[in-house]
Structure formats: structure tokens, C-alpha cells
TrEMBL record:
One of its GO terms (molecular function) is catalytic activity. Pathway: Glycan metabolism; osmoregulated periplasmic glucan (OPG) biosynthesis. It comes from Oxalicibacterium faecigallinarum. This is Glucan biosynthesis protein D. Belongs to the OpgD/OpgG family.
Length: 539
């Protein structure tokens, strides 16, 4: 489980860059130092990754560990990239690129390149690390790093012609790549939250630790003037895998990324996670132990949404389980899935970090992905500082050494899913002790209240009730009924039921609303954890 809050300026140099044909107005007024030019193409990058997968893994050389260890969270926070040195800072309406410094939590150097020209004429020049790009205290341990130590990651700042809500580009960024193959973007609420990854290897596999391959090289295309699109290429490398990526990133109302990836396996991988999303769920209205925290809810995402290959829309509320669990939702050619933050009411969080503004992340395959499953891994956590949720696509075929994958998909960083169901959607899952008020509460009985809201429920005639269609992998239901939520909101209904179940093994529940054989709502799935519930409520 990873922690989420750990986290050329001489005349001769300018003349040399001019001699190489680098447009200084597009770079940082000559402050960025560049290496020698070399040919570049995405096809060649893919070929490099393919060849590397046939060879033994060689980790990237790192600066001295004793120095990096001294650049802890506090020291790292004192190191700020000087925006006067930002890449593409001088182009009209462009998105400047700034860089992250290495430190205790980001020890693997990443090579950065700027691209000039196009097609067969494209040339890559490495952006050479220099401590002068950064503002840091004179006593900073970073000053003891060797020359050319490298960068930890990068981010795109807002354009100076961007929406006024973004304010000054020098202090606002909209996408960031930092650590292993992690990256994230803000949505239309101008807020970071959950993260994506290039790939996930062996998440929650009992026989071996999870592997975190690194993006080792990034290549930036010089953006067109006043464009809302940037293009970045990346090389991935790890003990079990290599890969090449192309990111076309659009900054409009939210952020949309078109990704073309080629992956090559060096070794067998038990659980190969494609297009993984990583988030945090501490607790929600569904489940909160007494005295856990003063806030009503704390989470970056509250559910997994799936639009499967058969056209069914599924909503699975997230758990903070008592023990690590993995759920698989079998499918063929899924239309999309994502970790969403549906609850947008500040009153349900009461926190100045604004969990209600966290973006949702929707993954949209652009080619048929064949047989496999959307898999959800939920890991116990006792605080909000840990990412404990992973959602990903796992192909059905075994991921064996020598296998290769070419996958295209689109990531939507928005406050809502881009293709919402026309059916009523689940808006809350509430849970409590079973039985009825004023009577002795029975043992091993849990009450569920599942709320739905949407147009199909608004169209019910007066006196008509939707039917709750329920199923479970074990246990029995009682006291099942539906009713309109008494808040005066049209189309807001809830289904209530009690579940009686013995033992501590998880229970998978399924529910949707219908009327006269017409489906009215998306499908609610939930994994009830009797062990977790008894631990907290003592029932």
C-alpha cells in the first residue's frame, strides 16, 4: 500500500542552442540545458521496449542513497522549481512544463527530452539536470547531489490564457507524473485526487510482492501555439515488464487523455493490471466505526462503475475491508469502467481539502480488449494518507514471459462519468443493525438502505412502487420493501432489506429496481464483510 502524502543561462549556452536550431522562445529563454540531438519516433521507442524485454533487467543508476535519504518530506517541500526555467514558458498560450526534484520518496531518476521536428525529421534532446533550475535553501541536502543527477517527474502548468478559475499558471498545474508509473490530473473542479498508473503488477498476490515498474524516459512534443493539447511519450521498465506509451492530453473542461501503449513481459505475471486506477476509501455513509474521526466521510472515490460488454451499468460501492479482498467482474470487450466520486455535497465531508471536488476517473477502451475481468482490490486502512483501492482490467489469458500487448484507451478525468446510464443511479448505500426499532435486535442481521435517483423513478404513477430485485451468494433476506425518500425530491427512492448471515466470509449482494418487467435502475453490487462489521459494531 503506497503512501499518497509522502510524497543555461550564459551567452555561450544560448548561442550553442541557437546553432542546434532550438527555438529559444519556445524553451525557457535559453535557461534549459540540452544534450546532443538524436533521432526519435514512437515506432522506434516501441522497438526499444521490445528488445529490452529480451534482455536482463538493469535498474537505472541512482545518485547516492545517503544524500537522497536526507531529502525527506520536509526538505523536499522546500525545493521549488523556478518557473523562469519552465519548458515552453515563452510560447503564446502554451502549457509550461516544470520538474520535480529527487528525494527520499522519489529516488529513481527520470530522463526528460524535448522533441523538435516531426516524422522522420524528429530529434530528441535530453534536458540536463542542473540545480540552478530549483530554488532551495543554501543548507539543502540536494546541493550535495552530483551534477546531472536527474529529475523525479514533471507537471504541466496551466496556460497563461487558461480559464481565470485556474489563476496564475506558475502556481497551478493540471497533470503530474511522479513516482514509478503514477500520474494524475485535475478534473473540472480543479482538484487532484485519485491516481492512474501505466500498469499494475501482482497487486494483492499472496505469493509475491507487488512490483512497481518505472517510467524511465519522457519525451515532450513542442505544443502548438494556443493549443489545448499536449503530447508526451514514455518508456516503461521494470524487472518483469517493459513498455512504450504515447499520451495525447487534452485540457478542456476537465482532462481527457488518449493513451497508446505497447507492453512486453520479461517474466510471468500472476495479475497483470491494465489501465489501473488507484484511490483512497477510508469511510463513507455506508460504514463508519464509532469515534473514527470527526468528519462524516473521508474518501477520494466512493464507488466502482462498470459499463460492461452486454450494456449493463453496474455500481459497486467501495469498502475499507477488515482484510485485503479482490473482486473480479468477468466481461468481454468492456465499454468502460472507473472509480467515481458521486457524492458532491460539502456537508457530507466538512473538510477544507474538499473531497467533494475530487475528480472521477473513467477508463474507456478504444479497441476490443477481449475476455477478462474488471478487478477491484480493497486493502484495509486506518487513515486517509494511504491509497488502498485499485481498479484495473485483467486479461483472461495468462500473462507469461514473452507475451506482448498493444492497447489503446482513453482516460476521462471529470466530476462524472462521460457516458452516464439513462437509468436511475445509486446515490447512497447505508447500513445498520437489523431488526425493528423498539424490539430486541437479532444477532447476525444487518439492515441495508440503498438509494436510487433518476428519471425512470420520476415517471412512476401515483401509488406505484418499484420492485427490489435482490440476490445473494449466501444468507437470507427479510423485511424487504421500497419507498420514496421523504425529502420531496422527485425520483429519489430507496430499497430496504435485512440480511441474515452466519460466518465471517464475504457476501456478494445484487440489487436493481424494476416495475412491470421494466428495469428502472442500474445494478447495485456490494460485498458485505461480516468480519469487519462485527469488529466495529460488536454485534
Amino acid at each position: 500500500m503506497t503512501s499518497r502524502r509522502t510524497f543555461i543561462s550564459s551567452t555561450s549556452a544560448a548561442a550553442a542552442l541557437a546553432a542546434l536550431g532550438v527555438p529559444l522562445d519556445v524553451l525557457a529563454a535559453g535557461r534549459i540545458k540540452l544534450g546532443k540531438p538524436a533521432g526519435f519516433s514512437f515506432e522506434n521507442l516501441i522497438e526499444q521496449a521490445r528488445v529490452a524485454a529480451t534482455q536482463a533487467y538493469k535498474p537505472q543508476a541512482r545518485p547516492p542513497a545517503d544524500i537522497l535519504e536526507k531529502i525527506d518530506y520536509e526538505e523536499h517541500g522546500k525545493i521549488k522549481f523556478n518557473t523562469d526555467s519552465a519548458l515552453y514558458a515563452k510560447g503564446p498560450g502554451q502549457f509550461p512544463v516544470t520538474f520535480f526534484h529527487l528525494g527520499r520518496f522519489f529516488q529513481s531518476p527520470v530522463h526528460m527530452y524535448t522533441l523538435e521536428g516531426a516524422g522522420a525529421e524528429a530529434q530528441a534532446r535530453e534536458i540536463l539536470y542542473d540545480e540552478s533550475y530549483f530554488d532551495m535553501p543554501k543548507s539543502s541536502p540536494a546541493r550535495k547531489l552530483p551534477r546531472g543527477s536527474g529529475f523525479a517527474g514533471f507537471r504541466f502548468q496551466e496556460s497563461r490564457t487558461a480559464d481565470q478559475k485556474a489563476k496564475d499558471w506558475r502556481s497551478n498545474d493540471w497533470v503530474a507524473f511522479l513516482g514509478a508509473s503514477y500520474f494524475r490530473a485535475i478534473g473540472d473542479e480543479y482538484q487532484y485526487g485519485l491516481s492512474a498508473r501505466g500498469v499494475a503488477l501482482n497487486v494483492a498476490v499472496a505469493d509475491g510482492p507487488e512490483e512497481f515498474p518505472n517510467f524511465t524516459h519522457f519525451y515532450f512534443e513542442a505544443p502548438a501555439d494556443n493549443s489545448t493539447t499536449v503530447t508526451v511519450y514514455a518508456m516503461l521498465d521494470g524487472p518483469s515488464i517493459t513498455g512504450a506509451y504515447k499520451f495525447i492530453m487534452h485540457r478542456n473542461e476537465g482532462v481527457v487523455m488518449e493513451i497508446d501503449s505497447a507492453l512486453f513481459l520479461r517474466k510471468d505475471v500472476e495479475r497483470l493490471g491494465i489501465a489501473p486506477a488507484t484511490s483512497m476509501m477510508w469511510y463513507s455513509e455506508t460504514f463508519k466505526g464509532t469515534g473514527v474521526d470527526w468528519r462524516p466521510e473521508v474518501h477520494d472515490s466512493d464507488g466502482l462503475a462498470i459499463w460492461n460488454g452486454q450494456g449493463e451499468h453496474i455500481w459497486r460501492p467501495l469498502n475499507n475491508p477488515g482484510r485485503t479482498t479482490a473482486s473480479a467482474f468477468g466481461d468481454k470487450n468492456p465499454r468502460g469502467f472507473g472509480l467515481l466520486q458521486r457524492d458532491r455535497d460539502f456537508n457530507n465531508y466538512q473538510d477544507g481539502v474538499h473531497y467533494e471536488r475530487r475528480p472521477s476517473l473513467w477508463i474507456e477502451p478504444l479497441d476490443g480488449w477481449g475476455d477478462g475481468s474488471v478487478q477491484l482490490v480493497e486493502i484495509p486502512t486506518d487513515d486517509e494518507i494511504h491509497d488502498n483501492i485499485v481498479a484495473m482490467w485483467v486479461p483472461a489469458a495468462k500473462a507469461t514471459a514473452g507475451s506482448s500487448y498493444r492497447l489503446r484507451y482513453r482516460l476521462h478525468w471529470l466530476k462524472d462519468e462521460p457516458y452516464p446510464t439513462p437509468l436511475a443511479r445509486c446515490v447512497a448505500t447505508r447500513m445498520g443493525n437489523g431488526g425493528q426499532p423498539g424490539q430486541n435486535r437479532p444477532q447476525n442481521v444487518r439492515k441495508f438502505m440503498v438509494e436510487f435517483k433518476g428519471a425512470p423513478l420520476e415517471n412512476l404513477a401515483f401509488g406505484e412502487l418499484p420492485e427490489a430485485v435482490l440476490s445473494t451468494t449466501r444468507g437470507k433476506f427479510s423485511y424487504v420493501f421500497t419507498e420514496a425518500v421523504p425529502n420531496g425530491v422527485p425520483g429519489h427512492w430507496r430499497a430496504q432489506f435485512d440480511l441474515t448471515v452466519d460466518g465471517d466470509e464475504p457476501v456478494d449482494l445484487r440489487l436493481y429496481l424494476r416495475h412491470k418487467n421494466q428495469t428502472l435502475s442500474e445494478t447495485w453490487l456490494y460485498q458485505y464483510q461480516p468480519f469487519k462489521t462485527r469488529t466495529v459494531y460488536g454485534s
